[in-house]
Design brief:
Layout: E1 8-14, E2 17-23, H1 27-32, E3 34-35, H2 45-56, E4 62-68, E5 71-79, E6 95-103, H3 112-120, E7 130-135, H4 142-145, H5 149-162, E8 166-168, H6 173-176, E9 182-187, H7 193-203
Parallel strand pairs: 3-5, 6-7
Antiparallel strand pairs: 1-2, 2-4, 4-5, 5-6, 7-9, 8-9
Amino acid sequence: MIHKKRYYSNEVNFQDRTILLEGPISGKKLNEYEFHEGLIAFRKPEEQKKALIGIADLPEGRINVAVDGNTVIGYVTFVYPDPMERWSNAKMDNLLELGAIEVADGYRGAKLGTGLLELSMLDDAMEDYIVITTEYYWHWDLKGSGLSVWEYRKVMEKMMNAGGLEWMATDDPEISSHPANCLMVRIGSRVKTEDIQEFDAVRFTNRFMY
């Protein structure tokens, strides 16, 4: 299920500057921007920029960004689940994964993560998709934030809620390995019952735990 990507934008004021939230943007457009040196959660900034350009040009890939001047300071990605993950086992063309969300240090007080998620869900096409995100505490910036695991989980959950994602149970071994880890899901209003049932079968592969 591939939709035409409709562009959306919004502006946020932060410390006397105007931050542009926009997307989904193309790989060509993304290549025109600089990448903030603080975007290092997954790779070095230039390497992450190349990875995001690749995602942006996938038919189903969606990249929404926060831009200060000509510099990307935050982003969120949506793409089909990794073939190595259990979520791809359903082979559903209407299942998207919120693969990454990152905001550069120094901008985190602007609630840009929340703003990016809200912008993402303005797209009516999202009503045809089940959107998931898998949260693992070892990916969280506990040191930089100064928060405990549970404080960070609360902040993360609140941010995801702004994008309409809610906690859902699963017997996935990695998620179940620590109580702070979680699966969060948004089911679009036009998703069919049979697709929801298929997704539920992937959430719980052990029928006795269903």
